[in-house]
Structure formats: C-alpha cells, structure tokens
Design brief:
- The protein is an all-alpha fold.
- The protein is built from 6 helices and no strands.
- The protein has one domain.
C-alpha cells in the first residue's frame, strides 16, 4: 500500500510533466520517423534523440501516474500491464504510434498517445 501514500505526491508532478511536453503526438511521430529514416546517420542527431527520448519518457511516466491515480480512486484503468518494469522497442513503439490515425495524433499529446498504446498492448480483462 505504499502507492496509496505516494499517490498525492506523484499527482503533484502530473501538471509539471504535462506542461513540459511541448509537442503533440503527430509532431513527435513525424520527427521520430525522420530521425529513423536517417539510419546510422541518426547518431549525429544527439540533440534530437535526447529531446524525443525525454518526451517519450515523460509521457510514459505521466500515463503511468494517471493509471495509478485511477486505480487508487477506484476507477477502472485504461490498461493493465503486468507487475514489474515493462519496455518496448522503438520499432514496436513507432508501429503502435503510427496505428493511431494522423488526424487523431494531431489532436492528442504524447501522454494520451502513450495511454492508447499501453491500453492496446496491455488490455484489461473484462
């Protein structure tokens, strides 16, 4: 039950994380696709890699925090990942992000995109 005690503290960071996200999911997708198209030459774009990686990590943390807040509030979570740390390769992540229609990606931020990706990957039992 440590999560219940930590939840109010974690919720303080959600607005800060949301404010830190400067791009919507479509912009992220386009920039990531352009970077991946460079192949090995992408290694010379360290600033862009760092920016996109940070954006994805913040979105993942915000999505996780929201899921935990929903559970603590007695609301059904949108995703039900197994216990422990989960990881996803960049190819799978981009495939899942690309599966969200471009019109929707342009209207959502990366946190919402991450929630959708996680919900598709780890659906909750009904």
């Amino acid at each position: 039950m440590h999560i219940v005690r930590l939840l109010p503290i974690m919720l303080l960071f959600v607005p800060a994380m949301a404010a830190a996200q400067g791009m919507n999911a479509e912009v992220f997708y386009k920039r990531s696709s352009a970077l991946m198209a460079k192949g090995p030459m992408a290694l010379f774009s360290r600033g862009e890699i760092k920016l996109l990686t940070g954006e994805a990590q913040r979105a993942g943390l915000a999505a996780r925090t929201q899921r935990l807040a929903d559970v603590a509030a007695g609301k059904p979570p949108r995703s039900c990942p197994p216990q422990g740390k989960q990881s996803m390769g960049s190819s799978e992540f981009m495939t899942r992000l690309g599966a969200i229609p471009a019109a929707e990606r342009s209207r959502i931020d990366m946190t919402e995109a991450m929630m959708r990706i996680t919900a598709a990957r780890f659906p909750c039992p009904r």
